[in-house]
From TrEMBL:
Residues covered by the Flavodoxin-like domain: 4-161
Entry keyword annotation includes Transmembrane: yes
Keywords of the record: Membrane, Transmembrane, Transmembrane helix
Residue ranges crossing the lipid bilayer per the database entry: 46-65
Protein name as catalogued: Flavodoxin domain-containing protein
InterPro entries documented for this protein: Flavodoxin/NO_synth, Flavodoxin_CS, Flavodoxin_dom, Protoporphyrinogen_IX_DH
Lineage: Bacteria, Bacillati, Bacillota, Tissierellia, Tissierellales
Length: 177
């Protein structure tokens, strides 16, 4: 029987929520990334890692990339959680390229899920980063703005929750396959 680990890093809770849903559905053991080392990873046949997206980086993903040599023959799944629309391949291909070597990309299966944001609870650095992003978007010509840009401007400063349990289905089916 497959032993499945679901590991996550989550700054404000969206990725944690998805990781909990996924662990329940696949009957996996759930861990925060800080509780995992290579010895722990070696105890599992299937490793699911989820991290929030921060300026195209995947939070905590070094637990996978640093230990990749030891775990490369296992079934590895990485899911990202961000605000960007998940049907926009042009957004996610560079993120995957930036965070993983070609060898890693060839053996890891990726999924992208939508998270949320509550501007009131952001730390100061994240508040400043979002303010800078807003300025950049505001300077774009209207016809250059993507739907994601428009949504960010429309909801800036508020609370948005795009998490949806139904969107884990493809990932769960893949883990179980
Ligand atoms: C400073 C900052 C940078 C972000 N960068 C991205 C990004 O590059 N792409 C994206 O889709 N979402 C981005 N987001 C949105 C987060 O990924 C989203 O809020 C996600 O739900 C965070 O998950 P977590 O709360 O589990 O960490 C960013 C949010 C903040 C605050």
């Amino acid at each position: 029987m497959n032993k499945i680990a679901v590991i996550y890093e989550s700054k404000y809770g969206s990725t944690q929520k998805y990781a909990q849903w996924i662990a329940e559905e696949v009957n996996g053991d759930l861990f925060h990334c800080s509780k995992v080392n290579v010895e722990k990873l070696m105890q599992y046949n299937v490793i699911v890692y989820g991290g929030g997206l921060y300026a195209s980086g995947i939070a905590g993903v070094s637990v996978i990339t640093k230990n990749f040599e030891s775990i490369k023959d296992k079934k590895i799944i990485v899911f990202t959680v961000g605000l960007a629309s998940t049907d926009r391949k042009e957004i996610f291909a560079p993120i995957v390229e930036k965070n993983f070597s070609e060898t890693m990309r060839n053996s890891i299966k990726f999924f992208h899920l939508r998270g949320g944001i509550n501007y009131k609870e952001l730390n100061l650095i994240h508040k400043l980063m979002m303010a800078m992003l807003k300025t950049v978007i505001t300077r774009k010509a209207p016809d250059e703005m993507t739907d994601d840009d428009k949504q960010l401007l429309a909801t800036y400063g508020t609370k948005v929750d795009l998490t949806n349990k139904n969107t884990i289905k493809l990932l769960v089916d893949y883990v179980k396959s």
